[in-house]
Amino acid sequence: MEKLTEMAEDRFWQPKIEKMPPKSLIEIQTRRLKETIKNLFEKNTFYRRKLLEKGLKPTDIKRVDQLEMLPFTTKFDFRENYPFGLLACSMSRVIRLHASSGTTGDPTIVAYTRGDIENWADCIARCLTMTGVTERDVFQVILGYGLFTGGLGFHYGAEKIGATVVPSATGNTRRQVKLMRDLKVTAFTSIPSYTLYLSETAKALGIDPEKDLNVTSVSCGAEVWSEATRKRIEREFGCDVFNSYGLSEVCGPGVAFECSMQDGLHLWGDHFLAEIVDPKTGERLGVEEEGELVLTTISREAMPLLRYRTGDLTKILDGACNCGRTHQRIGWIKGRCDDMLKVRGVNLFPSQIEAVIMGLEGVGNSYQILLSRRGHLDEVIVEVEAAEELWGRGEGSTEELAERVRAEIGTVTGLNIQVRIVPPSSIPRVEGKVKRVVIGDVETA
Ligand code: DLL
Questions:
Q1: Strands 138-141 and 265-267
Q2: Between residues 2 and 12, which one has the greater pLDDT?
Q3: Do both 345 and 300 map to the same domain?
Q4: Exposure string for 143-161, b = 16+ CB within 10 A, e = fewer
């Protein structure tokens, strides 16, 4: 782990851009923002109407700090304009379409020109380079290929670096692990919950992920997770693990990523402008204040977005990073605005529970939150898998673990929550994003 930090200075894909003085970065942002607005006004009827409704012409926006004057875009606007209403170029320039994994209504369609695909690959190449990936690495992409942006997004970025890409996608977990061993994979990307499943599967096959594999760098994202889970994965694979953030609407993965300092996620300011707003009022919040992340794309050609409400809760971090990059950093995603549970008057995010559970000795690799909705209130039971060793020690040990988990959740949240310890590996594993909160009628004791 120390090795990565020492070498951090070398790890730049586009050093001039990544270390650009803030004043030059603002110049680029201003120019690109103005171009984006002009383009949208001229080529997209939805945005032209939105801008006119606000009484705005493209020439009214002269500086980046006037961003607040612009209208928001929401997921609803994607649905209303399905499939191509947000396009700002002719279809003949579009070379790829992706779609978000939404489960209700029409999916969100995202279009890319050749230039968009190039920029996206560059963003991912920057991200992977700062986590230590080079042309000498064998890089396994354990993410869905297809409409989901994860697989192809990482694929193009890793190829751009010149790494040897193993596009193993998702599924057939045993084969994933065997490939990792046989092809001497040195770095991979996956979803955090699935990464823990990979390590369980390796052990079941008699492969010790730390000793028998050659993995030195893992990037994980696409779902809410915590520092405690990061430490777990680092322990399991004996390597560094980095947080990887992105969303289909603004391109896919590669929007923000941790560098070797593991101190917040750098958000590429020459492609995206970030704001944090109060999720209820939409009012702009300050640095280090937690709220909803709002993103404006300033280099996209096919589907530029003004002030897109991501629904993700985080904050913009203060100060510069020791790695030398000048681009703003955001904190870990606490959850989605609509993830918040209200239990006996207390606001609670599933990520707070995860942070407690995954850091405790004797806890296995998965948990779930069983929820029953009664009016506006939630009743909660937390089901926690025991680790193999603890389960083997019998009932006294599981009771003691339940008590520890309950007490720890109580200390962090102020709530007395029922905890149920379940056998190792008993909660179903999934290949995609895990669903931690299960809504149903909960039988409380
Ligand atoms: O999940 C893109 C992606 C692929 C990101 C691979 C990272 C790695 P969507 O399916 O559109 O795109 O889902 C985007 O997933 O708004 C967040 O709520 C959540 N999310 C993504 N990355 C993280 C992360 C991809 N690092 C939605 N931490 C986002 C927490 C994340 N949540």
A1: unpaired
A2: 12
A3: no
A4: bbbebbbbbbbbbbbbbbb
* Centre of ligand 1 from the C-alpha of residue 246, in Å: 5
Is residue 195 classed exposed, middle or buried when 0-12, 13-18 and 19+ CB atoms within 10 A define those classes? buried
Could you report the per-residue pLDDT of 262-305, keeping only the tens digit for each? 999 999 999 999 999 999 999 999 999 999 999 999 999 999 99
What range defines the domain where residue 393 resides?
A: 340-439
Residue 67 domain flag: no
pLDDT of 5 strictly over 50 = no
Distance (Å) from CA 223 to ligand 1 centroid: 5
Please check whether residue 258 lies inside any domain of the structure: yes
Reported pTM: 0.95
Residue of 245, 308, 329, 339 to test ligand 1 pocket, by largest number of atoms within 8 Å of CB: 245
- Structural contact between residues 405 and 384, judged by C-beta atoms closer than 8 angstroms: yes
Domain boundary among 336, 353, 384: 336
| Among 170, 159, 167, 169, residue whose Cα is nearest residue 133 | 159
pLDDT at position 316: 98
Q: Using 50, 70 and 90 to split pLDDT, how confident is the model at 16? A: very high
d(CA 301, CA 402): 53
Instruction: Give the CA distances from residue 172 to residues 73, 164, 177, 186, 191, in Å, rounded to whole numbers and listed in that order.
Output: 38, 21, 9, 20, 15
**Residue 4 pLDDT exceeds 60:** no
Q: Judge if 314 and 401 occupy the same domain.
A: no
CA distance 148 to 308: 19
Q: Which of 127, 139, 247 to mutate to test the pocket of ligand 1 (most atoms within 8 A of CB)?
A: 247
Q: How many CB atoms lie within 10 A of CB 189?
A: 31
Which numbered atom of ligand 1 lies nearest the CA of 143? Answer: 6
* Same-domain status, 214 and 136: yes
Residue nearest to atom 27 of ligand 1 (CA): 247
Confidence of residue 374 (pLDDT cuts 50, 70, 90): confident
Could you report the per-residue pLDDT of 191-235, keeping only the tens digit for each? 999 999 999 999 999 999 999 999 999 999 999 999 999 999 999
Q: What is the mean pLDDT of the chain?
A: 94
Domain end point (choices 336, 366, 396): 336
| Distance in angstroms (rounded) separating the CA atoms of residues 269 and 267 | 6
- Tell whether 195 and 285 lie within a shared domain: yes
User: Could you tell me what percentage of the chain is helix, strand and coil, using 3-state DSSP and rounding each to the nearest 5?
Assistant: 35, 25, 40
120-140 pLDDT tens trace: 999 999 999 999 999 999 999
Same domain, 323 and 348: no
